[in-house]
Amino acid sequence: MGQSEGSPPGGEFASALTAPDLTPSRPVYDGRLGELYAIYLRHVVLMLLTLGWSRFWGRTRLRRYLWNHLSILGDRFEYRGRGRELLIGFLLAVVMLAGWAGLMWLAWVHVFHEKPFADFGMFDIFSLSVAVIGFPLAYVGHYAGLRYKLSRTRWRGIRCGLAGSAWRYGVAATFLTFANMFTVQLLTPVVSVNLARPRISNTRVGTLPLVFAGSAGDIYGRYVGYYFLNIVAWLAAIGAAFAIAGGTADRLGLSSDDLLKLFTAPSVRTVLVAAAVAVGVYLLFSLLILPLRCWWQAYWFRYLVSHSRAGNVLFATAITTRQMWGFLVLNYLIILLTLGLGWPWVMHRTLRLIAGELWLYGAPDGESVRQRTDGGSAFGEGLLDMFDVSGI
């Protein structure tokens, strides 16, 4: 058959060559909980024997296991961080904190002469200042720690990375967080989108950048509904708590004066009953609030994934409120009932959820992805480790 007029050379064959490959695939996680626990328990024992100084190497071993058991498009991730890099980062953070303590001491002795803060004391002033500067520094440390982890992560031999300034991110995150507090959490969509954008858009797989196309306007309507439903749930829970407390007092024949006497001069029994009531009210609040929170978290996760891409690779997920509920509630119970020793189980469940619910459409163009020229951070996570928000 002859080529029709106006069609490009090659016809359907040329169209097939230029059409993007959107073959779906999912990450694969094949780690075993028993193996992960063996590494973790060794980490805990060494932590006890070394008074905590072995945690840098233990954390590295845990990451190496988790990274190496997660694969995309048939190729596993590699983690090439070292324990001594984490140790150096921590020591630098300690030196920075010691320098700040020295500056505070000099100001205390030579500027204030101990008069303006006579009721406080040097240690109180230092603790207060650390709390104040620690808030923005935690955000700086979070971004710098993410940069370190990505710089030590490889996929198909290509090193990942994170561009952008950690200090700029820390300033922006601090401003947005306080603005959100002053507006009674009504700016949450703005905060969420503007903190997610630099973390995603500055991420690189070699020279391939990730792109985030989200906008706060897209999610504001859903958030406003969640916000006011949350208020209704809180009011319902408070009303139910007062009704239960009033009914209990009536059944026991207690008047308002009796209740006042009980709480002005409480006995051990009164304290225990009040504690039990507080726990019951907390559980009631949780039962009413958590489903709404899971509904919002599942929606936000779906939005975040679907509005991100890496070159011609698209992402999608269909995680539901019920799945988010099961994930969050069971993780909380695992940590609570094991006194923190359930962290490996939580990490294991997290990667299984990602592998089971994340879909990728397409594959990166190998010819367009090159190795990064910079080596990333020379040391890692000092601020993150100092303010204890690092995890694994």
Low-confidence stretches: 1-17
Distance between the termini: 62 Å
Backbone shape: globular
Helical stretch tally: 13
The average pLDDT value, as a whole number, equals 82
The proportion of residues in beta strands is 5-15%
Structural class: alpha+beta
Domain module count: 2
Helix fraction? 55-70%
Q: How many beta-strand runs?
A: 11
Describe this protein with a few key phrases:
2 domains; globular; alpha+beta; 13 helices; 392 residues; eleven-stranded antiparallel β-sheet
Descriptive notes:
This protein is 64% helix and 10% strand. Mean pLDDT is 82; it is low at 1-17. It has 392 residues and is α+β, with helices and mostly antiparallel strands. Helix 8 runs antiparallel to helix 10 and helix 11 packs antiparallel against helix 12. It is built from 13 helices and 11 strands.
Can you lay out the helices and strands and say which pair or pack?
Elements: H1 11-18, E1 24-25, E2 28-29, H2 33-49, H3 55-68, E3 70-72, E4 75-79, H4 83-112, H5 122-151, E5 153-155, E6 158-162, H6 166-182, H7 188-201, E7 203-205, E8 208-212, H8 216-252, H9 256-264, H10 268-306, E9 308-310, E10 313-317, H11 321-337, H12 343-357, E11 358-361, H13 382-386
Antiparallel strand pairs: 1-11, 2-3, 3-4, 4-5, 5-6, 6-7, 7-8, 8-9, 9-10, 10-11
